[in-house]
Design goal:
- The longest helix is centred in the C-terminal third of the chain and has 20 residues, at about 140-155.
- This protein has helices at about 5-10, 15-20, 70-75, 90-105, 110-115, 140-155; strands at about 45-50, 50-55.
- The protein is mostly helical.
């Protein structure tokens, strides 16, 4: 007779478990394997200073890791009431009659083309141009900005400083 610990040791063989499909949840409650991109695959760039850019080191993890997404966000929702496709002849007639009466009463109803049309996706303006990355780090941008502000202040004050003072 085997003890429970011996039975478990045999049942959960390392080789079998290594090749199984079942994976435990990853870091931060992720489901499935880690799918991080390598440095050359990364699209997001980061300013490292001196006008140079390089791929961002670390992507921030998503806020919704480990939570189930609602079906309404993943699957297109029905646009007509349930059972509207399979009506008997008498029910279809009655429905058409009520629809007509509603229209005559001045109620706004959706046309068939409106009901069947796909949901509209938000479109971006064709005139939109994303801002070009300067390549300067945050500190360098702040330094440049403050130098400009100082220059403006000095010009407004009318302080007599030599031109060499303003050269970068």
């Amino acid at each position: 007779m085997k003890t429970f610990s011996q039975f478990i040791a045999e049942a959960y063989d390392k080789d079998v478990m290594g090749s199984s499909q079942i994976r435990r949840t990853g870091e931060g409650g992720r489901i499935g394997a880690e799918r991080k991109k390598t440095a050359p695959e990364r699209r997001r760039m980061k300013a490292v200073g001196g006008g140079k850019m390089e791929p961002a080191k670390e992507y921030k993890p998503r806020k919704d890791i480990g939570t189930q997404r609602a079906a309404s966000t993943r699957v297109q929702q029905p646009e007509r009431e349930r059972g509207s496709a399979a009506l008997s002849a008498k029910e279809a007639q009655r429905k058409a009659y009520l629809e007509r009466k509603r229209r005559e009463a001045g109620e706004k109803t959706k046309s068939a083309s409106e009901l069947l049309s796909k949901k509209k996706k938000a479109t971006v303006s064709p005139d939109y141009k994303p801002q070009k990355a300067s390549g300067y780090s945050r500190d360098e941008r702040r330094k440049i900005k403050r130098a400009g502000q100082r220059l403006m202040r000095d010009v407004q004050k009318g302080v007599d400083k030599p031109a060499s003072h303003y050269k970068p």
